[in-house]
Amino acid sequence: MGALKWLIFLVFLNTYSQAAAQSDIKVSVFSATSKTVILRWTSYSGAVTYKISAAPLSSPSSPVSFVMFGPNTVMGSISSLSRDIEYIFTVQALDGTQTVLSFASTQTLTAPDIMDPIKTVKPKDSRTFMVEFNPKTGATSYIIRVENTNGFFREDTVSSSPAEIRNLDPYTEYRLSIMAVNNAGRSQPSSPVAAKTVLPPPQISTSSPSNDSIIVTWPPVAHAVQYTVSIYKFDSNAKEKYNTTNTNLTFPGLDAGCLYAIQSSAWDPEGRDGEGSLYVNQTTRPATPSSVSVSVVMSGTLAGLSVSWELNKEVHGTIEYHVTSDQNLNCNSTSNSCILSPVGCGEIHTIHTTASNKAGPSQPSSPVLFITCE
Ligand SMILES: *[C@@H]1O[C@H](CO)[C@@H](O)[C@H](O)[C@H]1NC(C)=O
Ligand SMILES: *[C@@H]1O[C@H](CO)[C@@H](O)[C@H](O)[C@H]1NC(C)=O
Ligand SMILES: *[C@@H]1O[C@H](CO)[C@@H](O)[C@H](O)[C@H]1NC(C)=O
Ligand SMILES: *[C@@H]1O[C@H](CO)[C@@H](O)[C@H](O)[C@H]1NC(C)=O
Ligand SMILES: *[C@@H]1O[C@H](CO)[C@@H](O)[C@H](O)[C@H]1NC(C)=O
């Protein structure tokens, strides 16, 4: 063969093998919104134009939209679609004479339409919002986008209204928008609504300095304009509330040795009550032991002083009684008496009795003077 013939043969062979190796065009959905779908296809050698058409799956022979792309494009969008509709998309690779070289189809649902703004956002506590919205037909779930100017950005998937948005920061402003989700994707976010979480609970500490009072103290809560402190006695329903702008509060006039539960919350400058603290248990200090009496008891040849007092029944928890004599003797008891021993004759004992509970000791009883066998 001459050189020219060889060349023609090789060109023919090359073209033939390319055509033989070239597989059909392929198309896939890259992304879908409620109005626009982006498609990606494989390039087809010899194509001068790629033509894309979209038709509803319900009437595939009536395309609603066409777009043409040049030979170097393998990804393009087709718009003017309607929300939440299943479409079939056909890509045709055309040559210079508009002959179809290859074609392929794919289908997808368009995303739901944009939703109404969120109806209500209520702070549930300092870190949680309760969100209510109008559901969207066709939506399989919803995405609530939470963001703020401090760079916070989060998207929570929720299934229905109302929904809780958790793990936020206390007393912080957020913007919330909602998107409907279906199998195709998500709608555009609704226009945002602003909401602010409430103040965190005061970290209260309690103590009982006397048998009839409890002091509650707490570090200031930033931005708080006042605090509400509640108290109630266990086994009674009478709850009392007090407001203060201080960071401590003393409850006077309480019952000795009784259990109280205390809680507090902080109010913000917007006049909103914040998250309530957990209840803290605090017992008042016990009453001073009353009707203290002393007598001599013998244990074998050893003499002792039996000290006894009256038990108060209306008390909470264990009370330990501590008896001391200025003659360097002491005894403890959780019942109504104990024995100081050993004692000898001719001793003068000044005896004090104190009751203690978790809150601390009572005032000591007034001293009882006891003189052993003279
Ligand atoms: C405490 O303050 C709040 C808000 O100002 C008010 O609504 C409430 O009645 C007050 N409570 C008491 C016990 O004063
Ligand atoms: C209570 O608060 C007031 C004012 O904030 C302060 O003067 C006082 O010392 C506090 N008392 C206690 C027991 O912390
Ligand atoms: C407070 O005391 C009550 C009664 O004894 C008990 O049931 C409760 O668990 C206590 N709460 C705390 C926080 O200790
Ligand atoms: C409580 O303590 C006070 C002194 O702080 C004392 O005068 C009073 O008698 C005590 N009350 C009781 C019931 O013990
Ligand atoms: C009674 O209790 C006190 C305080 O817990 C302790 O110091 C003392 O040793 C006890 N006395 C006796 C006799 O156990």
TrEMBL record:
Residues 1-21 form the signal peptide. Keywords: Signal. Coiled coil: none annotated. Residues 21-114, 200-287, 288-374 form the Fibronectin type-III domain. PROSITE patterns: FN3. It comes from the Eukaryota. InterPro entries: FN3_dom (IPR003961), FN3_sf (IPR036116), Ig-like_fold (IPR013783). This is Fibronectin type-III domain-containing protein.
